[in-house]
Amino acid sequence: MTIQEISPASVLASAYQRSVADYWNREKNPVNLRLGEVDGIYHHHYGVGDVDWSVLEGPEETRDERITAELHRLECAQAEVLLNHLGTVTPDDRLMDSGSGRGGGSLVANRRFGCHVDGVSISETQVAFANEQAEKHGVSDKVRFHLKNMLDTGFESGRFRAIWNNESTMYVDLSQLFPEYARMLRHGGRYVTITGCYNDTYGLPSRAVSEINAHYICDIHPRSSYFKEMAANRLVPAAVVDLTEATIPYWELRAQSPLATGIEKAFLTAYKDGSFQYLLIAADRV
Ligand code: GPP
Ligand code: MG
After folding, report:
1. Does pTM top 0.90 for this prediction?
2. Cβ-count burial 249-267 (b if 16+ within 10 Å, e if not)
């Protein structure tokens, strides 16, 4: 283990990054923990797909449990959509989960492909939690989580077959992020992001988008900046999927859940007024 991996001060390059690390070190939202407890896969992203509204019916005593399981099912479906865009991955390949949270995405990638996964987070608490999960799932030989900064990981050039960000690009400047990915991806490697971005055709960030930024201490980028910065960094888009319609039902259900955090209305407003989009972008490193 390098010094960089064990010293938070050397990983956090700015006061902003320290404030983000502080948020995630303290974060214990039941909407994340209760969902993770369903099957031991802890995600930090939202869901896609049609809601089974029958979960609201049936015995009152188990209603909350049914909603929790349904929200988790939709978040797991979102992770599968991302994995579907990683291309061919063999058990010897290495993938990087950039902004790996409590580790759920890395575990499901390893489960599907049998590959090595390096998860990266600037939160010590998340890294420790995720490494415990890898132990519990018996895959710590192949899935490892590191206290590292995605803008400057220290990983060797050409290490990765694929890199993904599942809702974590809004914490970094893309003009700093993509050069680091172009360096770490091998030629023909795949980059995938699922992200919330603001819609250039709306203009600048709407009130609802600004509320989301304030809630998570992030900086949602315009859709155009993804393509501009990819083009500048040898990343050629291979697929773009607008998941906006597919994520709205998740937010409708979450708004009715006792696990709601208060940000649900802002997401629904932003998606419905056209100021915000939930997008998957897959790109090849050339
Ligand atoms: C979800 O994490 C993602 C983020 C916080 C980044 C912001 C994402 C956008 C698309 C704008 P989470 O699962 O920890 O959030 P919550 O606690 O609200 O479920
Ligand atoms: Mg969540």
Report:
1. yes
2. bbbebbeebebeeebbebb
